[in-house]
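ZP: hey, is the adenosine-5'-triphosphate complex queued? I don't see it on the tracker
AM: it wasn't, my bad. submitting now with these inputs:
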Amino acid sequence: MRELSMHILDLAQNSIAAGATELVIEVSADTQADRLMISLQDNGRGMDSDFLARVRDPFTTTRTTRRVGLGIPMFEAAAKACGGCIALQSAPGKGTYLAATFRLSHIDRAPLGDIASTLMSIVAANPDLRLRYTQRLDDKLFVLDTNDVKAQLDGVPINEGAVLKWLGEYVNEGTDALKYEF
Ligand SMILES: Nc1ncnc2c1ncn2[C@@H]1O[C@H](COP(=O)(O)OP(=O)(O)OP(=O)(O)O)[C@@H](O)[C@H]1O
Ligand SMILES: [Mg+2]
């Protein structure tokens, strides 16, 4: 995938398919350590240790429409190609944590891409999900918590067109100062 935000969108689908009601996505760049970390934490149904041991294999999937599941293997391949790795923790009934590291300056590191559109897509299709997104560049931080947004909306659905448009602009403006060749 040419943009890391496409991985994020794909992996968020895993969390939603697992019945998550809360999803925390973090993108954190540390220029001193030359490291980028992307993580997703959800409270979905989780995976047992047996399944977890196999999930990095493309032939491990609970999909019914095809026999390969590529989300996690592709994310791992992208991280490994950039001198990084993935960490995966999960427990049935508790949720799942997935994180990948990349060497920030690695020539093969994909750009972050359009994170505003990615978050808008997730919110548009899952208005009841509590989504918390944080993006960090060294000591600069942007946070979006859909619960805070909902508290301001006075009952207007968060997936209404005008709200989504505002949300996209808010994310674009808020992350503008956090760009590291993303
Ligand atoms: N956050 C999660 N919570 C619970 N189960 C998960 C989670 N992420 C992945 N899984 C399980 O691991 C399997 C493999 O995930 P992966 O993203 O690699 O492929 P997929 O979702 O099956 O297919 P694709 O991503 O190619 O559409 C999923 O089918 C699902 O059963
Ligand atoms: Mg998937």
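AM: back. The mean pLDDT is 95.
ZP: great, adding it to the tracker
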